[in-house]
Amino acid sequence: MTDTIPVDDVDLFSDEARIDPYPIYERLREAGPVVRLTRQDLYALTRYADVRAALMDWPTFSSAKGVFVDPGVNASLEGITLCSDPPEHTMLRSVLGRPLRPELSREMAPRIEAAADHIVGELVGRGRFDAATELAEHLPMTVVSDLVGLGEGHRGKMLEWAAAIWDVQGPANERFTAAMPLVEEFLGFAAEEAVPGKIVPDGWADQLYQAADRGELPRDKCPALMLDYVTPSLDTTILATTSAIALFAQHPEQWHRLREDRSLIPHAVNECLRIESPVPQFSRVLTEDHTIDGVALPAGSRVALLYGAANRDPRKYPDPDRFDITRRPSDQLAFGRGEHVCIGMNLARLEMGTLLDRLADVVERFEVVSSRPLLNNGLRGLESLEVIVHRSPAPASS
Ligand code: HEM
């Protein structure tokens, strides 16, 4: 039965595909529910209903053999939270997610609001800035990196390490090879330096060791679990925020709408993530023979879940390439779904929503001067977005 599956030799990790994957996603989505990608020896799911169903069915679509592409990386990262199944996953996630519970994320709000006020005031006052490196990086690089708590001296390094770790989530291409030394440096740092006494007391990293001391997880797991905090907590949100600014610059009428009605902010965040998903894919391995939309796949198949394609599936979202903040796509898949749904999504939403709100107070319109795409194997978005902001006239004094 597998020989009836459409085959495609696209390289989803080529520069062209990273810059503009959407025509490729459309081709794959229309070719069939499952497409065999010969270059990376993967089966791709691109339709919303199939990706969502796979995410909700962890016993069949397992994360325990890794969720990336390269077999070596998948083998070496087995057992971190992202790459595990219940019951181990449940135990790890409960420890990892403790500082990120919704009520604690809400407690972070005043700090995030103060940092947002500061950066928006400064940049909008200047009138022209890089929305990626100066605006979007600010909250993750100040508030979030503080909370992770690797120590002040490692703040800048966190971004470099994280980008490298994302790069090895793809196939063994040039980007992957170039990133490997930094990944090894991080693993060495996590084992030797990111240990109690050298990291911020009571930070998220330190809390992992505290949980180990209470017998809640094996102590030798702690260095690898740092990956679960360091990798996804910064670039994802930075890219999502940058994309949001780019989208509002291209669609001033949507910005106007958001400024008029701030209750649209949570929906705008979802719509930005739907249109430009910063994490385009992860994968799973089938634990048994399984039929997806009439297509039979054998146990052991690696199946890529293309969140970025599913989020633009016209079967789910009419006119899917249209950016519309009144669409209210709360079911978009940019944070995943099910057992592994993003543990940091409340924090990411809070960061993005607060920045948009503060910008809406003072910015009438964004104008893009230039932009540069990020070329990374695991992430998508812009690494630079130079903008000019047109300020709103000061409100008439009453
Ligand atoms: C816009 C920002 C973000 C996006 C788009 C994003 C995306 C994702 C996605 C797609 C997954 C699902 C993985 C899977 O299906 O296998 C995930 C999981 C995860 N995310 Fe995020 N993420 C974001 C922000 C964050 C932040 C701020 C943190 C930490 C503070 C974080 C920590 C994690 C962790 C630890 C997991 C693994 C959860 C598990 O395996 O149970 N993420 N994220």
Automatic annotation (TrEMBL):
KW Iron (keyword) present: yes
Domain of life the protein comes from: Bacteria
PROSITE patterns, alphabetized: CYTOCHROME_P450
InterPro entries the record matches: Cyt_P450, Cyt_P450_B, Cyt_P450_CS, Cyt_P450_sf
Keyword set includes Cell division: no
Pfam families from the UniProt entry: p450 (PF00067)
Coiled-coil blocks: none
Gene3D superfamilies in the record: Cytochrome P450
Keywords, sorted A to Z: Heme, Iron, Metal-binding, Monooxygenase, Oxidoreductase
One Gene Ontology term of the molecular function aspect: monooxygenase activity
Family, per entry: Belongs to the cytochrome P450 family.
PANTHER family for this protein: CYTOCHROME P450 YJIB-RELATED, P450, PUTATIVE (EUROFUNG)-RELATED
Protein name: Cytochrome P450
Organism of provenance: Actinomycetospora succinea
